[in-house]
Amino acid sequence: MKALSEQLSELAERARKVEDVVAAAREDNRARLETKQRELQQSVAEGKARADQRITAARETERKRWNALHASVDQWFTELRADADKHRAERDVRKAQRRADMLEEDAVNTINLALYVLDQAEYAVIDAVVARADADDLTQHS
Questions:
Q1: Of 50, 53, 48, 58, whose CA–CA distance to 78 is shortest?
Q2: Using alpha carbons only, how large is the chain's radius of gyration in Å?
Q3: Of 2, 14, 7, nearest to 121 (Cα)?
Q4: Whole-angstrom Cα distance, residue 52 to residue 13?
Q5: Spatial CB neighbours of 26, under 8 Å, sequence gap ≥ 6
Q6: Where are the coiled-coil regions (predicted)?
Q7: Do residues 67 and 55 lie in contact, with contact meaning Cβ atoms separated by under 8 Å?
Q8: What's the pTM?
Q9: 24: CB partners within 8 A, 6+ apart
Q10: Residue 90: helix, strand or coil by DSSP?
Q11: How far is 24 from 35, CA to CA, in rounded Å?
Q12: Which of 2, 25, 47, 91 is least crowded, fewest Cβ atoms below 10 Å from its Cβ?
């Protein structure tokens, strides 16, 4: 398992990559966005594989909880992407505008979810560090 500091550095790097995507969107650089989208598909698959490995190593109750969470998140994103692909073919301007509005709202909601999960991750990191300090204190005093 990676050290917490390594994981946080990786998370910061991923956040910078999201900023690059936002910059490309502002520049209306479609080719850059499509390239980034293909890269992200690979990254998502790799991240899921890493998470699956960690889940496999977890205790059974934790494994069930994480599997359920991953399945739920995967299903949500699968539905969003399938819906987006279906509507991309539509040529009606009003429908296309509504769809763009909906996808922008989905992006905002996904960012809000990520921020919430980051808060939870920060709490979990602090909880883990405090628990390790408590365990170390107990070890020293016994």
A1: 48
A2: 19
A3: 7
A4: 21
A5: none
A6: 86-113
A7: yes
A8: 0.53
A9: 32, 33, 36
A10: coil
A11: 11
A12: 91
- 125 in Cβ contact with 8 (< 8 Å): yes
Q: Residue 70 contacts by C-beta under 8 Å, 6 or more apart in sequence?
A: 48, 51, 52, 55
Q: Where are the domains of the chain?
A: 93-142
Using the structure block, give the residue that is written with the tokens 């365990």: 135
First CA to last CA across the chain, in angstroms? Answer: 28
What length is written for the chain?
142
- b/e sequence 24-37, b meaning 16+ C-beta within 10 Å: beeeeeeeeeeebe
Which positions ≥6 away from 56 have C-beta within 8 Å? Answer: 63
d(CA 38, CA 133): 43
